[in-house]
Amino acid sequence: MDHDSLYETDICAWAEQQAAALRGFASRVDLPNELDLANIVEEIEDVGNSHFRAVTSFIRLILSHTILIALNADAESVRHWTFEVFTFRGNLIQAWQRSMRQRVDMNIVWRHAVREAALKLTLYRHSGPAPGDDKIMARLEMGCPFEIDDLCGEAFEFHDLVDRLRARLTPDGPL
Which of 4, 6, 121, 124 is the most buried (most CB within 10 A)? Predict the structure, then answer.
């Protein structure tokens, strides 16, 4: 694949490729002194990393809102949270690039989403944790119940994600 098309289709892979190529020049003595190769490499890597951070942020937001809805089906905010999930997913799909698949650790993103949702739940309730929250949190902390394709795949079914999560959180649900 040529550089222009890789740049257009997968900026993360392009940034990694370009940074590696530039590192290959680091030992050369015939480069101009004005060329700040180390910082150029860092800046190029930051291009890819910023896209990756955006993707993991959208995933975290989708997951935390899924948790909120699964735990608060009757909350006044459910419609708003659902709308936000579809907005975050649209942004996720725009930023998603195939080279990210092997870099996204769903369990790490999930842990952040669980903490975020737990904080929001406490704030929404105005009364602190409810009885049984510790058991629910223990079930949530067991690891992400979703794969990256559940969020980025063509067959995205948000209500299925909520139902699957609710099944995991019920006392008789799957572990």
Answer: 121
